[in-house]
Amino acid sequence: MSLKAFHIVFVTASTLLAFGFGAWALWQYFGDSRALIDLVMGVVSVLAGVALIVYGKFFLKKLKHISYL
Amino acid sequence: MQTEILPYIVEPRKDTGLYNAKVGIWLFLASEVMLFGALFSSYILLRVGAAEGTWPHHLLNIPLGTINTLVLICSSVTVVMSWASLKLNQWSKYKFYQAITILCALIFLGIKSFEYTDKFTHYEVVLKNGTSMTGHVEGSPLFLNLNKLKAAKTESIGFHPDAHASGHAEGAKGEAGGHGEGMKIATADITKLECFGPWHSTYLAIYFTLTGLHALHVFAGACVIFAIWGPLAGLWKKDPERYTNRVEVSGLFWHFVDLVWIFLFPVLYLL
């Protein structure tokens, strides 16, 4: 497996974490915490998840000539 | 005299389809998976086996952990971009991206040291009347305990208890302050004084083991990336393909280290 393939695995895991953490933080905020930091972390994390998807597409396009092996 | 050259350092072997260093790093990473896998399993067993209500929560600083996660994700992007730059023969871009990777590693380790120091200056004190409190000792000394207090013949300590009795208010949500009013405690009234080091609880023991081992991997990875980026950069002129392979192999290790953190962060900080 090349660095390209491993990077795709990593970006996928990071995207899942970003959305998962975002949901967790927002759930905390809308639950009982009402702490601004939870809202900020939740929003930033969801945005990071979206950014990672966009980056993943860009990455696949940029490195399409490099092998997965 | 003819010099022997190691085979398959650039071109792939026919049987594996890979150059030797790539086979080597994947074998090494397989052993690393076993190492971290064993520690993760230990964590799960310790947590599942803990009596109900005894597993601590909100001890760690989630905003700092989040920043560290973002820093490592950024560093993975720059590592792969630096490798892609070499593939496209863009040396200056490679140097730039790898410099950011090294900077990210330093930021990660800096934040981790801050978190560790915070734990080593955060104390649990148990008094003779049975009262138990957590907080900070005046002057923020590291690794203070009752024996040291007695040896230094200290008659009393200034103590700032946490606002929340069960944990570290600064920790979980990262809000500033979070301490109640300061108080004087006589050494003679104390039965236990212990910082939140690895010896304090099972949770902290596994936390320091996992994150300490991970931080050592970050440090080692950063050293290798720095060596290839700086002192060993001359190989690029002599054998660019071999140099690019070295960057790829170090990048594979770096990705593994980052992937471990992607699992560590939710397990230790959130659950």
Q: How far is it from the N-terminal to the C-terminal residue of chain A, by CA? A: 5 Å
The largest chain-to-chain contact, stated as pair and per-chain residue counts, equals: A-B, 29 and 31 residues
What percent of the residues of chain B sit in helical stretches (DSSP H or I)? Answer: 55-70%
Instruction: Say how many strands of chain A there are.
Output: 0
Shape call of chain A: elongated
Indicate the proportion of strand residues of chain A.
under 5%
List keywords for this structure.
heterodimer, A: 69 residues, mainly alpha, 2 helices, 84% helix, 0% strand, B: 271 residues, alpha+beta, Four Helix Bundle (Hemerythrin (Met), subunit A), SH3 type barrels, 2 domains, five-stranded antiparallel β-sheet, 8 helices
What's the SSE blueprint?
The complex is a heterodimer of chains A (69) and B (271).
Chain A: H1 3-33, H2 36-62
Chain B: H1 20-49, H2 62-87, H3 91-120, E1 122-127, E2 132-137, H4 146-151, E3 156-161, H5 169-173, E4 183-186, E5 190-195, H6 202-229, H7 235-238, H8 240-270
Antiparallel strand pairs in B: 1-2, 1-5, 2-3, 3-4
Structure description:
The complex is a heterodimer of chains A (69) and B (271). With 69 residues, chain A is an all-alpha fold. In chain A, 84% of the residues lie in helices and 0% in strands. Chain A starts with a helix and ends in a 7-residue tail after the last helix. Chain A has one domain (3-62). The longest helix of chain A has 31 residues, at 3-33. Chain B is of the alpha+beta class and 271 residues long. Chain B folds into 2 domains: 59-117 and 201-270, Four Helix Bundle (Hemerythrin (Met), subunit A), CATH 1.20.120.80; 121-195, SH3 type barrels, CATH 2.30.30. In chain B, 59% of the residues lie in helices and 10% in strands. Chain B has a 5-stranded antiparallel sheet. The termini of chain B are far apart. Chains A and B meet through helix 1 and helix 2 of A and helix 2 and helix 8 of B.
